[in-house]
Design goal:
The chain has 193 residues and is of the alpha/beta class. The chain has 7 helices and 9 strands. The strands form 2 sheets. The protein has a 7-stranded mixed β-sheet, sandwiched between helices. It has a two-stranded antiparallel sheet with strand order 2-3.
């Protein structure tokens, strides 16, 4: 199964008060932690990093490694625009069966969880999405199969693929640890520390 990855990091971080992608955890930007977890899985190709607001300072401070940067000009629309931009970049030159989606503000995401979700997607029926489950709550990564690509292209607003997953059959993969926690405020970052 040919699977690419999309790291969503285009938001303005309004609730955080500054570019949260660059906020430090363990001496490194939050986004760097996420990129390390995803790019450590060679089976994910390509890896697309979607930037929008604050793209210039992020590019100055975060090495994307093997990830390719895609700029989402419509980032103010919300997560759907970022997801559409990432999917367009991932499928522009690659015939993919699925994409694995992660949020750029989940710095405790573990490479093992990425691998487990990817393995579950390979074993799942072809049209069924797969997502991580943390303490009974769905989170990221999420694997979206090719059968949903057209629907992703029609998403709008700030909900991402949630409306595609709600009520649909989804394979859930139990994941341990704090990897599903995203950083939205300085207080949530302190809680991770």
């Amino acid at each position: 199964m040919r699977t690419g990855a999309i790291v969503l990091a285009a938001g303005a971080s309004r609730r955080f008060g500054s570019p949260k992608q660059l906020a430090e955890l363990d001496g490194r930007p939050l986004l760097a932690h996420v990129l390390d977890a995803v790019t450590a899985v060679p089976a994910l190709d390509p890896v697309i990093l979607v930037l929008g607001a604050h793209h210039e300072p992020i590019r100055e401070r975060v090495d994307p490694g093997r990830a390719q940067v895609a700029l989402c000009l419509g980032w103010e629309e919300g997560m759907a625009a970022s997801l559409r931009a990432g999917l367009a970049a991932a499928t522009a030159e690659h015939d993919l069966d699925a994409v694995l989606v992660v949020l750029g503000d989940t710095p405790r995401l573990e490479t093992d969880v990425v691998r487990e979700v990817l393995a579950a997607a390979r074993a799942a029926p072809p049209a069924v999405p797969v997502r991580a489950l943390y303490d009974g709550r769905p989170g990221h990564p999420v694997v979206l199969p090719r059968q949903l690509f057209a629907a992703v292209g029609e998403l709008t607003g700030d909900e991402g693929a949630r409306e595609l997953l709600d009520g649909a059959p989804v394979v859930l993969v139990a994941a341990g640890g704090p990897g599903g926690l995203d950083v939205d405020t300085p207080e949530s970052l302190e809680a991770l520390r």
